[in-house]
Automatic annotation (TrEMBL):
<dbReference type="InterPro" id="IPR001128">
    <property type="entry name" value="Cyt_P450"/>
</dbReference>
<keyword id="KW-0349">Heme</keyword>
<feature type="region of interest" description="Disordered">
    <location>
        <begin position="1"/>
        <end position="28"/>
    </location>
</feature>
<keyword id="KW-0479">Metal-binding</keyword>
<dbReference type="InterPro" id="IPR017972">
    <property type="entry name" value="Cyt_P450_CS"/>
</dbReference>
<dbReference type="Pfam" id="PF00067">
    <property type="entry name" value="p450"/>
</dbReference>
<dbReference type="GO" id="GO:0005506">
    <property type="term" value="F:iron ion binding"/>
</dbReference>
<dbReference type="InterPro" id="IPR002397">
    <property type="entry name" value="Cyt_P450_B"/>
</dbReference>
<keyword id="KW-0408">Iron</keyword>
<dbReference type="GO" id="GO:0020037">
    <property type="term" value="F:heme binding"/>
</dbReference>
<dbReference type="GO" id="GO:0016705">
    <property type="term" value="F:oxidoreductase activity, acting on paired donors, with incorporation or reduction of molecular oxygen"/>
</dbReference>
<keyword id="KW-0503">Monooxygenase</keyword>
<comment type="similarity">
    <text>Belongs to the cytochrome P450 family.</text>
</comment>
<dbReference type="GO" id="GO:0004497">
    <property type="term" value="F:monooxygenase activity"/>
</dbReference>
<dbReference type="InterPro" id="IPR036396">
    <property type="entry name" value="Cyt_P450_sf"/>
</dbReference>
<keyword id="KW-0560">Oxidoreductase</keyword>
<protein>
    <submittedName>
        <fullName>Cytochrome P450</fullName>
    </submittedName>
</protein>
Length: 422
């Protein structure tokens, strides 16, 4: 029987001593935290999103797989629009919070922050542009990018694999697909690290810099034309002004900074550090796609969705009373390991894609195929062309300090290029 410390009707703000999301995500064993919260609270638990000037910003963390699906699929009860958040309505947020920059009270003009008809209008151009991409060209460009980065790593060397390979590949492959040249992609990557820094001022500055670069390139693409994502977005009739185009383009740029880097990093970490896992891959019992999926199940790079939902009504979720205006954080990693859907048998996850790393419902990720194509190519190219060995015990490696993304902060390694067969 689930043990709860308080009644299910207590208000969110009445709870104290809350566990920090960053503490959970960057801990050696986040699943232990989720299990403790699940035992104490059930499928929905109060947590701390952020602390600023001694003010704790609270939210409900949704732990259950079924409860996460319920929130993701219902725009009638749970909104992406932060204008519905009580902390915005009542002006409770201290200035300079990172969550305030992610969830502005005046939502940016992108489907990411809207619901209903407005979401549909703004989402349609991105869906159409992604559907029109030639995946063969994307794969070729990503392969070329991998070869460039591998050549830059030299015939042999040592260092941080995240910095040397995972981050530049994930980011530059996505920005190239959008239509940016390598120099511009590098400029965007310099700002990208600030997007998940947790520092509100750094996040705001990075967002402004990124928006300026994207706006300039939108005007160029409209004049020159092209087959890349940005060129297609630049001429789509659904958009009312360039600000809407820029906001829509920034979403996949941010996704590259946040998700692809983490997915590539954790897949390589799993293969390089876990001998039994590596044996299943090298022995052909687990395909590369299966490897990528098992990482999403076991080590979800998105620990919590960086897009909270906001209750539009007083509702009950997982036996807990949610008040109108409450923030709900979707616990992706917790849901993927929910005992109700996760047996613990790794073979149950092979080619099983019912995990929630892409989300579900009207706000599901628009680019799962593109992300998989880039991640698969990046992992395959490194393992094909480099002999890589981690040089520190995996238990000693720190995790990135983030409330949302979980991946190794660094992967100290040695590497040498595999000789090309004649």
């Amino acid at each position: 029987m689930t043990q709860q410390t308080t009644g299910g009707t207590a208000s969110l703000e009445s709870h104290t001593g809350l566990t920090s999301l960053t503490e959970i995500t960057s801990s050696p064993d986040p699943q232990a935290h989720y299990a403790r919260l699940r035992k104490q609270w059930g499928a929905v638990a109060p947590v701390e999103i952020e602390r600023k000037d001694d003010v704790v910003v609270p939210a409900w963390l949704v732990l259950g797989h079924a409860e996460n699906c319920q929130v993701m699929r219902s725009e009638l009860d749970y909104s992406r629009n932060a204008a519905n958040w009580r902390w915005n309505v009542e002006n409770l947020l201290p200035p300079g919070t990172a969550i305030g920059t992610y969830t502005p009270s005046v939502p940016r003009p992108t489907a990411f922050y809207h619901d209903g008809d407005e979401r549909k209008r703004l989402r349609e151009p991105l869906d159409e542009a992604l559907a029109a991409l030639d995946e063969r060209v994307v794969r070729e460009r990503t392969t070329d990018m991998c070869e460039r980065v591998i050549d830059r790593m030299g015939p042999s060397g040592s260092g941080d694999l995240v910095k040397a390979y995972c981050r530049p590949i994930g980011f530059l492959a996505m920005t190239t697909t959008l239509g940016f040249d390598l120099e511009t992609g590098a400029m965007l990557m310099a700002d990208a690290a600030s997007l998940v820094s947790g520092d509100g001022d750094r996040v705001a500055k990075a967002q402004a810099n990124t928006a300026g670069i994207v706006l300039e390139h939108i005007r160029q693409r409209r004049e020159e034309g092209g087959e890349d994502l940005l060129s297609r977005l630049a001429v789509h009739p659904n958009f009312a002004h360039d600000g809407e185009i820029a906001s829509s383009a920034i979403v996949p740029v941010s996704a590259a900074a946040i998700f692809l880097t983490a997915w590539i990093t954790e897949t390589l970490h799993q293969v390089l550090a876990d001998r039994s896992f590596a044996a299943r891959v090298s022995g052909g019992r687990l395909t590369l796609d299966g490897t990528l999926d098992e990482v999403l199940w076991r080590r979800s790079p998105i620990a919590q969705s960086p897009a909270p939902r906001f209750a539009l009504n007083d509702v009950e979720l997982g036996g807990r009373r949610i008040r109108r205006g409450d923030a709900l954080v979707l616990g992706i990693a917790a849901a993927n390991r929910d005992p109700a859907v996760h047996t613990g048998d790794p073979w149950d996850e092979v080619d099983n894609r019912s995990h929630l790393s892409w989300g579900t419902g009207p706000h599901a990720c628009p680019a799962p195929r593109l992300a998989r194509l880039i991640a698969r190519t990046a992992v395959d190219q490194l393992l094909r062309h480099m002999d890589v060995t981690l040089t520190e015990p995996t238990d000693d490696l720190p995790w990135a300090a983030s409330a949302w993304v979980r991946h190794s902060e660094r992967l100290p390694a040695t590497w040498s290029q595999v000789p090309t067969a004649m």
